[in-house]
Amino acid sequence: xxxxxxxxxxxxxxxxxxxxxxxEGGPEAMPVAGGTDLYPNMKRRQFEPKVLVxxxxxxxxxxxxxxxxxxxxxxxxxxxxxAAHGGVIAEYPALARAAGLISNPxxxxxxxxxxxxxxxxRCNYYNMPYWWRRSINFCxxxxxxxxxxxxxxxxxxxxxxxxxxxxxxALEAHVRLVSVRGERVIPARDLYRxxxxxxxxxxxDEVLVDVIFPPADGMRAxxxxxxxxxxxxxxxxxxxxxxxxxxxxxxxxxRIVLGAVAPMPLxxxxxxQVLVGNRLTPQIVEAAAQAAFKPAKPLDNTDLTLxxxxxxxxxxxxxxxxELAGLPAEEPPAHx
Length: 336
Known about the structure:
Uridine Diphospho-n-acetylenolpyruvylglucosamine Reductase, domain 3; 12 helices; five-stranded antiparallel β-sheet; Enolase-like, domain 1; single chain; alpha+beta
């Protein structure tokens, strides 16, 4: 049985108190909300904080505000509540779908919106018990100096495994970060970096407070997730797609974001360019899927073979776009 290491648990009552505690704790302090990713990582000695600052009691992180002029979601909102919220379903049903596909019901009753957006990058050589990692002399992401996915390289290739991050970027959301230095609002895309270790554009002492989505304004969006099982598993491919069309069906705006193919959510800009200015015909959809296929370069760092995962990039982008275009396609993943 893997056990948690010793740590101090602090339970602030306000956001101001929480960011002060995190700042005072320095590198040895970490915030915790649902803990569904943090606690297993601590058991495997991937994270070794001496102080945990609990965020679950902070009312500032618990609200969902949807009034037709946009959607603001507190980072501490429980995933199950987020997926079932009438305002979320009305404004952006694709967000509800993505949240409903995260892990399993038990995790969704504990995990939070912010926790999924900030979830640690994953890799076959990293997400293992301590004794296993020690047997290979660890890896670059924690305690070692070699990336076993690409041993001759100088960087870590652990992949982004968030379901909500590709959707937040596709829907052009912003996030609000707060620390003792004040607060800042940045585009969701700037929350991520193309580095398996330093994968966040958020300072360690900053707390993610809100996710702010603009008005849908005719946007149609969807999320497709590939994983071995229908529950529990992290994505080995996520496709978030969002389009807006004019009255004659011509695409005026498109965003396609791939998850689990790189250390950060990967925007398929070439595929977006194929769509904009064209009607979403079967031929255009297939051309866009082919364009999205090219930049996706999965490596041997997660489940199933990298060749299969790359091929499925084209398949899943096509399925997502066919759904948005109203073209015949397979049924979308069930919202559970």
